[in-house]
Amino acid sequence: MTEPVLELSGLSKSFGALKVTDAVDLDLRPGEIHALIGPNGAGKSSLIKLVAGELAADAGSIRFDGHEISDLDQIERARLGLTRTFQVSSLIPDFSARGNVMFAAQARHKSIFGFFRQVSRDRELIDEAMEALDRVGLSDRAAVRVSELSHGEKRLLEIAMALAMRPRIFLMDEPMAGLGQEGSAKLIGFLDKLRTQAPILLIEHDMDAVFQLADRISVLVSGKIIARGTADEIRNHPEVRTAYLGEDAA
């Protein structure tokens, strides 16, 4: 079996009496999409924040490419190749689409403040940005301000920014949120190909997308993993059907 790129062991996090992550074990293997599903408030986004370094764990370990990274901050983890996209878009509305991607590419090398020093004439960054925009189908929208892009275009732009970070892992928090049927279908096709570049830890409420994309699915309820398996195994798991899918397991 291929060695995992990412391994979480006994990962726990509490806010006062509320335990949002409870001794979670999870791994991500090269070339796969591992989906993390669960009801609202299950702790999915908190788990992603722990992996990305936005939150510090109370207990447990996070190993990336065989090395413990729990002591690294968010920027250090991003530079190693843990790249996150957000449930709520985190773009700069007054920048062009290309400018946002150049910002991400610049952050890979230096402090983000270096971005403002004659970056618009940096040919290497321009080329990197245009390559990423072309991959997500937005090259013809490069000069358009983010505030003028559609919701679906903003989600694709966020993935282009992630690509510019040269990721070794994608951490994706509900990339389908707010997309219509056509937009979701387009993004599903893109993510299916993207896994060959870097594996994806995916949080997603769109179960059709999850069942189409995921090699493995972990189900989180009240901070605990209650089941893990293939799409068929999760569909037919009685505890999952009761706790999350809202079905009568009888």
Task: Give structural notes.
This protein is of the alpha/beta class and 250 residues long. The model has no long low-confidence stretch (mean pLDDT 86). The chain has 2 domains: 1-81 and 167-250, Rossmann fold; 93-165, no CATH class. A hairpin with a 2-residue loop joins strand 4 and strand 5. The protein has 9 helices and 10 strands. The protein is 35% helix and 24% strand. The two termini are 36 Å apart.
Blueprint of the fold:
Layout: E1 6-15, E2 18-28, E3 33-37, H1 44-52, E4 59-64, E5 67-68, H2 74-80, E6 82-85, H3 97-109, H4 123-135, H5 151-164, E7 169-173, H6 181-194, E8 200-203, H7 207-213, E9 216-221, E10 224-229, H8 231-235, H9 238-243
Parallel strand pairs: 3-8, 3-9, 6-7, 7-8
Antiparallel strand pairs: 1-2, 1-4, 4-5, 9-10
Helix pairs in contact: 3-4, 3-5, 4-5
Short recap of the structure:
This protein is α/β, with parallel strands linked by helices and 250 residues long. It is built from 9 helices and 10 strands. Helix content is 35%, strand content 24%.
DSSP summary: helix tally: 9
**Beta strands, count:** 10
> Between the first and last Cα atoms, what is the distance in angstroms?
36 Å
Identify the quaternary structure here.
Answer: single chain
Number of domains: 2
Class inferred from helices and paired strands: alpha/beta
Unreliable residue runs: none
Helix content: 25-40%
Main beta-sheet annotation = 6 strands, mixed
Strand order of the biggest β-sheet: 6-7-8-3-9-10
